[in-house]
Amino acid sequence: MASINLVIKQDLDITCMRNDTFELDMDWTDSSSNPVDLTDYTFKAQVRKKSTSSAVLTFEDSDFTKDASGNLLMQKSASSMNIASGVYEYDLQATHTDGTVITWMGGLFVIQQDITE
What we know:
By secondary structure, the protein is mostly beta strands. The protein has a single domain (13-112), classed as Immunoglobulins (Immunoglobulin-like). Helix content is 0%, strand content 49%. The protein is built from no helices and nine strands. The protein has strands at residues 10-11, 14-17, 22-27, 41-48, 55-59, 64-66, 71-76, 86-96, 101-112. It is globular. It starts with 9 loop residues before the first strand and ends in a 5-residue tail after the last strand.
């Protein structure tokens, strides 16, 4: 029996510190290594304890800085990162201006306990 996999999601585990500013700077290219024009997309991401639980952290399009040369910066303030330390799951979805929605990446989102307040 033949099969086809339509999932393009890349697995990327993220580890960060509780109560620290979160910044993840990424460069996106297509299969020919050409930069993807990210100005044609809106982005969102959610962090959850389990895929079926409520989001403990949400990244809206305003939490992303993007450009035509494929650079995508995902950010949250330190106060937004006041989340219990632990192992969570996340994914990042991109919506193209034509309405196409694709999950580009996902994996574990590990928040380490901080010491300094």
